[in-house]
Amino acid sequence: MNEPLLQRISINPEICHGKPCIRGLRYPVEFLLELLSSGMTHGEILTDYDDLEEADILAVLLFAARLSQVKSIHRLAS
């Protein structure tokens, strides 16, 4: 059901050092998450970055949600 959104996330070693990005553009997922967490609205982001689409923002949020679906977290060192 959400696969079309996730297809907007690309990983290419030649773009942004292989970080997950939006549609092969040089917008890493982490950058958009930082904008959202700073309080920017979807509309503000879309106004500032006119090559992005609403679906791109939704894809970033879905990608982050999927990454957080881990079974357990173990401490590696104290």
Task: Provide structural commentary.
The protein has a single domain (3-66), classed as Arc Repressor Mutant, subunit A. It is 44% helix and 5% strand. The protein contains four helices and two strands; from the N terminus they run αββααα. A two-stranded antiparallel ribbon has the order 1-2.
CATH architecture assignment name: Orthogonal Bundle
Along the chain, the helix and strand elements come as HEEHHH
Shape: globular
CATH class: Mainly Alpha
Features:
DUF433, single chain, globular, Arc Repressor Mutant, subunit A, two-stranded antiparallel ribbon, mainly alpha, 78 residues
Could you provide a short overview of the structure?
This protein has 78 residues and is mainly alpha-helical. It contains four helices and two strands; from the N terminus they run αββααα. The mean pLDDT is 92.
Task: Annotate the secondary structure layout.
Elements: H1 3-6, E1 9-10, E2 21-22, H2 29-37, H3 42-48, H4 54-67
Helix pairs in contact: 2-4
